[in-house]
Specification:
This protein has 380 residues and is an alpha/beta fold. It contains 13 helices and 12 strands. Bound molecules: beta-D-galactopyranose.
């Protein structure tokens, strides 16, 4: 059905093109695919920002793997600015991209662009973040985002001694004091991470084992716009001032992303945490960004959740190739990701929690980082 609709759309474009008679061409007749050599096909890759290592790693991995498969690649970053991302995608559509791979800044802001893509017969694959409120999302490649949240909450409990590595109850009985951070409310993933984490923490909050001293337990209260490190640092400073001015200390902080973790850790360090007399609270994370892996190695950050961007890129390429060959990619989840208009068929990848002892076996032995990268806290 997809191929048929695409053919109709391309046909309509051709008619329009002829009618325009001498107007500027669209550059390649976007959306063409089956039967064409990969070298004649362009994949538009729209990434949110270069200020976070993780998206640079994603962009590089996707570009390299698409190029290795023979495709042309138009890779753009949008500086976390919604109008910039909209413009870049508009440009990809008008210049004749054959497929779009999009990691949205604001999951609800791209309906117009996606409609234009649909009208031009261009398949759209949402990358890592679901695009919401649009029927024109054909596939979604991501990690198991709910499980990311579950893993973060378990890592928080383990770091505070409430849980052993095998999930059994740890030596610490509580009550423990924590604060909760969440991601950006315009990113659908933030809700999955928070809900996953709360599926573990809520019963413990309810029975008094875990206490959120600030009382800020809703995702709206815990949110961090654009996942920004500085915003998280500011909120942690405010929490310390408002809720810990009585000499008490948090035992742990749930953080959904390494950039947020670094903001939280900076606030804690500035308040004197991280000494034998005032140990650093357990701080979780996500993405295994190299700066945070070093902090874990140095015993500052407790853990992160590793999402192998090489695997995500690989799945994105598999999905792109399926569409460009005129078929549809194979989903392993067809129920979870309702984008407000439809359930988007998805391919979910597993995640892995990384504590200090896991850095060598999981991140270095797999070639994700070198031991030197970890020691330096940056790549290359
Ligand atoms: C989310 C993504 C996380 C993290 C965060 C901030 O959408 O799933 O892994 O990267 O954005 O960039």
């Amino acid at each position: 059905m997809f191929t048929r609709m695409r053919t109709v759309a391309v046909g309509a474009l051709l008619v329009l093109g002829l009618a325009a008679c001498g107007g500027e061409g669209a550059g390649g007749g976007g959306g063409a695919g089956a039967g064409e050599a990969p070298g004649d096909l362009t994949v538009g890759v729209s990434m949110p920002t270069q200020t976070s290592e993780r998206w640079i790693a994603d962009g590089n991995a996707v570009r390299d793997q698409l190029t290795a498969a023979g495709y042309q690649v138009d890779l753009q970053y949008a500086n976390d600015d919604i109008p910039t991302q909209s413009q870049q995608i508009d440009q990809m559509v008008t210049s004749g991209a054959d497929l779009l791979l999009v990691a949205a800044i604001d999951g609800t802001a791209l309906s117009g662009q996606l409609q234009a893509a649909k009208d031009a017969g261009i398949p759209v694959v949402a990358y890592d973040r679901l695009i919401r409120e649009s029927p024109n999302v054909d596939f979604y490649v991501t990690f198991d985002n709910f499980q990311v949240g579950v893993a973060q909450a378990n890592a928080l409990l383990r770091g505070m001694g409430l849980q052993n590595a095998d999930g059994s109850p740890g030596p610490e009985r509580g009550p423990v004091v924590v604060e909760l951070f969440a991601g950006s409310l315009d990113d659908n993933n933030a809700f999955y991470f928070f809900d996953g984490a709360m599926s573990v923490l809520k019963p413990l909050i309810d029975d008094g084992t875990v206490r959120v001293k600030s009382g800020q337990t809703t995702i709206e209260q815990a949110a961090t716009l654009r996942w920004a490190q500085e915003t998280a640092q500011k909120r942690m400073e405010d929490l310390l001032t408002s809720s810990y001015n009585d000499g008490s200390s948090p035992d742990g902080v749930l953080s959904p992303y390494d950039g947020i973790s670094r903001g939280v850790l900076t606030a804690l360090q500035n308040a004197g945490f991280g000494t034998p007399a005032k140990p650093m609270p357990t701080v979780t994370g996500q993405d295994a960004e190299i700066a945070s892996v070093k902090l874990i190695d140095d015993g500052v950050q407790s853990s992160t959740v590793f999402k192998d961007t090489r695997q995500l890129a690989e799945q994105a390429v598999v999905a792109a190739k399926a569409f460009l060959d005129g078929g549809t990619p194979e989903a392993n989840d067809t129920t979870t990701y309702d984008n407000g208009v439809k359930v988007v068929p998805s391919y979910l990848l597993p995640v892995r929690t990384v504590f200090k002892a896991d850095i060598a076996p999981v991140l270095v032995d797999s070639g994700y980082y070198t031991a030197e990268d970890v020691a330096r806290g940056r790549q290359g």
